[in-house]
Design brief:
CATH superfamily: Hotdog Thioesterase
Helix content: 10-25%
Oligomer: single chain
Strand content: 35-45%
CATH class: Alpha Beta
Low-confidence stretches: none
Number of helices: 2
CATH topology: Thiol Ester Dehydrase, Chain A
Distance between the termini: 12 Å
Number of domains: 1
Order of helices and strands: EHEEEEEEEEH
Shape: elongated
CATH architecture: Roll
Largest sheet: 5 strands, antiparallel
Number of strands: 9
């Protein structure tokens, strides 16, 4: 499937005293890129339904491996690709690049769920209109 590309510049608040990005930010950036990807398809990461429930995509797992440091004011390219469309879940492969240097790579697995008004979550089949967009998504 095509790769979606998001861009960001490293902020000072995302770094340590040496100006190197704290590792936890890569996880946040994965999620931000995932949300941008959904929006690029005209989808929402959380969508209220007529019955008062919400459809959403909670995380099942996330991993990130670090290859090179990112630093304050670096321009970062985040490449996100749907690696697998399952019955109830999506798996994304994510890469972080600065020019020709790969900074990190990881995976993010989310489950399609309905959130009931009482707060309970229940996994559900990915709706056909979502599945169709994930499988036919053009590159950004």
């Amino acid at each position: 499937m095509p790769t979606f590309i998001a861009h960001r510049q490293v902020k000072f608040s995302e770094t340590d005293m040496a100006g190197i990005v704290h590792f936890a930010n890569f996880y946040r950036w994965m999620e931000e890129a995932e949300h941008e990807y959904f929006r690029s398809l005209g989808l929402r990461i959380m969508e209220k339904q007529p019955d008062g429930t919400f459809w959403g995509w909670p995380r099942v797992s996330a991993s990130c491996h670090f290859d090179a440091p990112a630093r304050y004011e670096d321009e970062i390219e985040i490449r996100i690709e749907v690696e697998r469309v399952g019955f109830k879940s999506l798996t994304f492969a994510v890469e972080f690049w600065r020019d020709n240097t790969q900074l990190a790579h990881g995976r993010l697995k989310t489950a399609c769920c309905v959130c009931h008004p009482n707060g309970t979550l229940e996994s559900m089949e990915i709706p056909a209109n979502y599945r169709q967009k994930f499988e036919a998504a053009p590159a950004a």
